[in-house]
TrEMBL record:
Gene3D superfamilies: 3.30.1440.10. This is UPF0201 protein B6F84_10525. Coiled coil: none annotated. It comes from the Archaea. It comes from Acidianus manzaensis. Transmembrane segments: none annotated.
Length: 143
């Protein structure tokens, strides 16, 4: 079973449309909801890896496959991958991974991908490279 959850805090000073734009620049969600924790949190979800095709394309356009692979592998567990993006950079269509929530002053965008074989997702999203050229181009894993 595939489940992708993307969350982002909506701080009082933020424009909701810009936060949604930051998410949708890299993720095509199927469901959207809000929860109030400390701040209001926007939660976007999907049940297909196809929802990450914009992210897949952006990694190649920005030529950051090696960095992305490092962050994706760092956040990998037995059946999931978690990573964070800088929210303000995402709002203008740029990918910037963060290690710590404090690196994104208004809170990061957190991606959590549940998939039975996370290594296959990483190999599809961010394959190893040689001098910046991907060593393989795997097709999208089956959902």
């Amino acid at each position: 079973m595939t489940k992708i959850t993307v969350t982002a805090e909506l701080r009082p000073s933020e424009n909701e449309a810009k936060v949604l734009l930051a998410i949708s620049n890299f993720f095509d969600f199927e469901y959207l909801r809000r929860e109030k924790i400390q701040y209001e949190v926007i939660i976007a979800e999907s049940k297909t890896l196809r929802s990450l095709e914009k992210f897949h394309k952006a990694l190649r356009e920005e030529r950051i496959l090696d960095v992305a692979r490092k962050y994706l592998r760092k956040g990998m567990s037995d059946d999931s991958i978690t990573f964070m993006l800088h929210k303000q950079a995402a709002a203008i269509g740029r990918l910037s991974f963060v290690d710590d929530e404090k690196e994104s002053p208004l809170g990061p965008i957190v991606f959590h991908i549940e998939y039975r074989k996370p290594e296959e997702v990483i190999d599809w999203l961010a394959p190893r490279t040689s001098k910046g050229v991907p060593l393989w181009n795997n097709s999208i894993p089956d959902d």
